[in-house]
Recover the amino acids of this structure.
């Protein structure tokens, strides 16, 4: 994995804005081979264009914008998760009796529920806001889980390969949902496997096919795991911190199982606290889960640090030692506001991390995906601000 | 010590507007759109809302409180009811953020439809000065003062911990009557001086709002010399209006007009600081809690703030629904305290939380209160480090 050897490298968390044409193509079910071929051609050219555009903006480690993960509306916060269910067997629509309840029933064990703790705390805000986390029904596991997404996956990898080879990109990444986040995404709805452990094990075995293929294709694998910090807000009855860390550790072990045999230096791991524009007062602090995060067998960790709830957490790294050889990808621009970060602020943020963990261990990133979360023009303005900020910080850090 | 300085802890305040209760908005809307309405009922609704709001501000840890601008249609548009000499031009557009809008047309087309004046309860036309400017707002400002006096008494807040925002001369409208800009702004300022003096005579602080000063620096078509000249006129006009008022009774607020957009094309604090610090005020409030301006505390590494003057940087913002973490707020305050001294930093907000009378405000009311509580916690954390 490239690191910041002589300047601060730049990357982002994955999702980039889709064109209207691509969103529309994804939202219509393809009715025949001609239409399908048209979608595939559009996807290919869009990936090529978005890689070019990232390079023009100055992003060092680009991706395919997650364009192969269907986003069907301009504001879609869930494409990072929904895509996997068309690539797995064993999941189906949720019947009303299998749906996660808003609250756990009295006397029932802790489970993921449909309504977040914060949604209860800010019920008026959430009743009035259009930007709430989706409460639409999520799929349920109803049979054995196997990976069936080879075609879609090979297509995505081939599209990115063609784009990166054409533009001479040294390193690119591909995102894939982490094991625990897949369980979180479907709200733990499982009527097939007897236990959570068995469910996680089956998820891990299936998604490891995707993980391996990404690494074998020569890309960095980025595991998207908002579930690590964010399930804290969704468990009912609410766990103690110790209980939660045990809960999270079980998911990390399942993830490491899925990563077995993959070289650590080909893997980066992304966490965030959910990308909707809410108050986020119930987010678990990084310091409470940082040791669990560091147990993931990845070389780099991508963490939100550019929004007002998590900006101060660079201080965590004044107390917690980043293990030798590991890298951090703090968010220095955010999906959480339309205001474009000033490059000098971006530089300040990078410098704070460089001071805490060493300049060679910082890669400048984004809090979360920008696609579907801010207007396309704003997303690109933010990436340019990120690059400019990294340039300012590099000049200071390498005394140029 | 001037009255605004901290003595034993970091004080907290905000900028003025807060989400108005729907009971007030319904009546205000009827009034502003020319529907029949009951003035006594509106007055009573506002008086009650101010009492409730001041109580809640205190409960959330705000030291220096205000009335939420509940009686006003908007933080600058309110003044047209209080001045003579202007006429509305419903066919003219208010041009806002021109370079921004040119750069991000789709974003702003959507934004203006839903937010700011687009969300206002009554259409707002620009006003133009067509005759001698005269202040006719004495009764209106006395009503605001009486409401706040009563509310502050209920909540146990001392008068010098109450402020009332009032617009600067730049916030009214365009001139077609006076010979030149200078004459026009001084005439408006002379009229506004009545309002400022009434507020201070009541024992309160007056906050002069001038979001239009930074605008000059991104107005298309102005040369550098013209920008400086215009800024100079604004400052002189405001100082003229403040003549006779002790500086320690005045807070000067500048910002960038609420805008929650990308904001690539707006002035930096460095562009305006020399003008801001010339205002005869005891404290200066500016944006510092959003990612476009957060880094600007560095400016005070080289700019010296005159003795006895207080900074009121924004440490919470209207530009995000996320509640600032108290530790981040503390950090922001500590940076300023380190540069200008612990007695000279008051925790504030970037801007108001309901710039206009809106049903859908920039930030939801429940989130505003939570931001205030976070600000109190952050100020306390900073206090603990600064007054060990």
């Amino acid at each position: 994995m490239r690191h910041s050897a002589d300047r601060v490298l730049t990357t982002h968390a994955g999702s980039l804005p889709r064109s209207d044409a691509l969103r529309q193509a994804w939202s219509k079910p393809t009715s025949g081979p001609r239409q399908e071929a048209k979608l595939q051609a559009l996807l290919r050219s869009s990936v090529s264009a978005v890689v070019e555009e990232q390079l023009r903006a100055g992003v060092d480690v680009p991706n395919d914008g997650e364009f192969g993960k269907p986003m069907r509306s301009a504001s879609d916060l869930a494409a990072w998760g929904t895509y996997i269910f068309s690539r797995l067997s064993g999941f189906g629509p949720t019947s009303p009796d299998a749906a996660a309840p808003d609250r756990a029933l009295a006397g029932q064990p802790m489970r993921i529920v449909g309504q977040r703790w914060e949604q209860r705390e800010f019920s008026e805000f959430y009743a009035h806001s259009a930007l709430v986390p989706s409460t639409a029904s999520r799929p349920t596991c109803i049979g054995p889980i196997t990976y069936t997404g080879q075609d879609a996956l090979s297509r995505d990898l081939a599209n990115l390969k063609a784009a990166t080879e054409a533009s001479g990109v040294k390193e690119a990444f591909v995102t894939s949902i982490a094991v625990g986040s897949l369980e979180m995404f479907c709200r733990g709805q499982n009527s097939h496997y007897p236990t959570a452990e068995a469910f996680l094990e089956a998820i891990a075995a299936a998604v490891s096919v995707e993980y391996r293929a990404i690494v074998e294709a020569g890309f960095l694998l980025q595991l998207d795991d908002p579930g690590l910090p964010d399930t804290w807000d969704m468990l009912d009855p609410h766990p103690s911190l110790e209980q939660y860390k045990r809960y999270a550790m079980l998911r990390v072990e399942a993830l490491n199982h899925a990563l077995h045999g993959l070289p650590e230096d080909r893997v980066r791991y992304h966490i965030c606290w959910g990308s909707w524009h809410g108050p986020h007062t119930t987010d678990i602090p990084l310091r409470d889960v940082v040791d669990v995060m560091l147990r993931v067998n990845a070389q780099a960790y991508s963490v939100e640090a550019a929004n007002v709830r998590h900006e101060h957490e660079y201080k965590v790294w004044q107390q917690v030692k980043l293990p030798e050889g590991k890298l951090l990808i703090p968010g220095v621009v955010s999906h959480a506001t339309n205001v474009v970060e000033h490059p000098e602020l971006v530089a300040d943020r990078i410098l704070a991390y460089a001071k805490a963990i060493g300049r060679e261990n910082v890669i400048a990133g984004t809090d979360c995906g920008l696609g579907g979360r801010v207007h396309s023009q704003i997303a690109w303005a933010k990436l340019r601000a990120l690059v400019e900020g990294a340039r300012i910080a590099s000049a200071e850090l390498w005394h140029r | 010590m001037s009255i605004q300085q901290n003595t034993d802890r970091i004080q907290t305040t905000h900028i003025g507007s807060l989400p108005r209760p729907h009971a007030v908005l319904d009546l205000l809307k009827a009034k502003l759109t020319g529907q029949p309405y009951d003035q006594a009922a509106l007055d009573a609704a506002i008086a009650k809302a101010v009492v409730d709001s001041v109580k809640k501000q205190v409960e959330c840890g705000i030291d220096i409180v205000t009335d939420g601008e509940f009686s006003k249609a908007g933080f600058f548009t309110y003044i047209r009811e209080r001045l003579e000499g202007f006429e509305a031009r419903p066919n003219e557009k208010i041009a806002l953020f021109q370079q921004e809008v040119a750069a991000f047309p789709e974003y702003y087309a959507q934004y203006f439809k839903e937010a700011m004046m687009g969300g206002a309860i009554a259409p707002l036309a620009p006003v133009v000065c067509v005759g001698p400017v005269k202040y006719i707002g004495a009764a209106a400002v006395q009503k605001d003062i009486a409401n706040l006096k009563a509310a502050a008494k209920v909540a146990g807040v001392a008068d010098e911990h109450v402020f009332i925002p009032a617009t600067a001369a730049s916030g009214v409208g365009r001139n077609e009557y006076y010979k030149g800009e200078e004459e026009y702004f001084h005439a408006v300022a002379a009229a506004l001086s009545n309002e400022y003096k009434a507020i201070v005579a009541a024992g309160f602080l007056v906050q002069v709002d001038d979001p239009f000063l930074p605008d000059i620096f991104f107005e298309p078509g102005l040369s550098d010399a013209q920008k400086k000249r215009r800024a100079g006129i604004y400052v002189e006009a405001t100082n003229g209006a403040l003549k006779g008022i002790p500086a320690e009774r005045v807070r000067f607020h500048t910002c960038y007009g609420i805008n929650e957009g990308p904001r690539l094309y707006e002035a930096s604090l460095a562009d305006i600081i020399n003008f801001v610090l010339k205002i005869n005020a005891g404290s200066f409030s500016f944006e510092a809690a959003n990612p476009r301006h957060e880094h600007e505390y560095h400016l005070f590494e080289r700019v010296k703030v005159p003795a006895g003057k207080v900074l009121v940087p924004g440490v919470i913002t209207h530009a995000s629904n996320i509640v600032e973490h108290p530790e981040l707020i503390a950090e922001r305050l500590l940076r300023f305290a380190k540069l200008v001294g612990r007695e000279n930093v008051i925790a504030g907000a970037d801007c108001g939380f309901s710039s206009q009378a809106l049903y859908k405000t920039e930030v939801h009311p429940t989130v505003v209160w939570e931001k205030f509580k976070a600000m109190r916690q952050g100020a306390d954390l900073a206090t603990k480090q600064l007054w060990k």
About this structure: Chain B has one domain: 22-386. The mean pLDDT of chain B is 95. Strands of chain B lie at 83-88, 127-135, 163-167, 174-175, 205-209, 250-253, 283-286, 310-316, 348-349. The first helix of chain B runs from residue 22 to 32.
